[in-house]
Specification:
With 188 residues, this protein is an alpha/beta fold. It has 5 helices and 10 strands. The protein has a single domain, classed as Dihydrofolate Reductase, subunit A (3-Layer(aba) Sandwich). It is globular and about 40 Å long.
C-alpha cells in the first residue's frame, strides 16, 4: 500500500505564496534541491490541483535546463518519470507525459489508488491537499520551512482541520531552511 505524502515549501508564517502569488522566496539552493530529489525518487504518482500542475509542468521541457546545475536537471528527469493525476474541471488536455486529468477529487478513488500502489504518492497544491486532509487520506507531511515571513497569502496547510502529528525527521540546511517530516497520527 502506498503512503500519501503532502510535500510543500512554506514560509515560517505558514504560506505557500505571498499575497501577490509570488513564491520566489522558496527557490531551493542545491542542497535543498538535492533533498527534494531524494524525496521525489520515492514517489510513483503525484496528485496535483490545476494551478500546481501548471507550475510544475515546466519540468517537462529541456529548453531552459541546459545551463542549470546537475541537481536541477536531475529533478526534471525524476519528475518526468513519475505518473501524474491532475484534478481540474477546466483543463481540456495536458501537455506532459504520464499525466491524466480527473474532473473531481474522489476520496474513494484516491483510497483505491493508495491501496493498489507499491510506491509512495505525493499530493501538491493547497486546495486539493486540503480535501485529502479532510478525508483522512494524507499519511505524512514533508514541509520545507523557509526563513521568511510573508505576512499573508495562500496557506500551506488547511484551515479547520485538526490532526495530531508525530515527528519522524528534521534537517537544517545552511541557507536557514528547515525540513520537517511528520506522520499523521489520527486521520479522520
Amino acid at each position: 500500500m502506498g503512503t500519501l505524502i503532502y510535500a510543500a515549501n512554506m514560509s515560517l508564517d505558514g504560506f505557500l505564496e505571498d499575497e501577490t502569488g509570488a513564491f520566489d522566496w522558496s527557490v531551493p539552493d542545491e542542497a535543498v534541491h538535492a533533498f527534494w530529489n531524494e524525496h521525489e525518487r520515492r514517489i510513483g504518482t503525484s496528485l496535483y490541483g490545476r494551478r500546481m500542475y501548471e507550475t510544475m509542468r515546466v519540468w517537462e521541457s529541456d529548453d531552459w535546463l541546459a545551463d542549470e546545475p546537475a541537481v536541477v536537471r536531475e529533478y526534471a528527469e525524476i519528475w518526468r518519470d513519475t505518473d501524474k493525476v491532475v484534478y481540474s474541471s477546466s483543463l481540456t488536455d495536458v501537455s506532459t507525459a504520464r499525466t491524466r486529468i480527473e474532473r473531481t477529487f474522489d476520496p474513494e478513488a484516491v483510497r483505491r489508488l493508495k491501496e493498489a500502489s507499491d510506491q509512495h504518492l505525493s499530493i501538491g497544491g493547497p486546495g486539493i491537499a486540503a480535501e485529502a486532509f479532510r478525508h483522512g487520506l494524507v499519511d505524512e507531511c514533508v514541509l520545507m520551512v523557509c526563513p521568511v515571513l510573508v505576512g499573508g497569502g495562500k496557506p500551506a496547510l488547511p484551515r479547520g482541520v485538526r490532526l495530531d502529528l508525530e515527528l519522524l525527521d528534521q534537517r537544517r540546511f545552511d541557507n536557514g531552511v528547515v525540513a520537517v517530516h511528520y506522520a499523521v497520527r489520527n486521520p479522520t
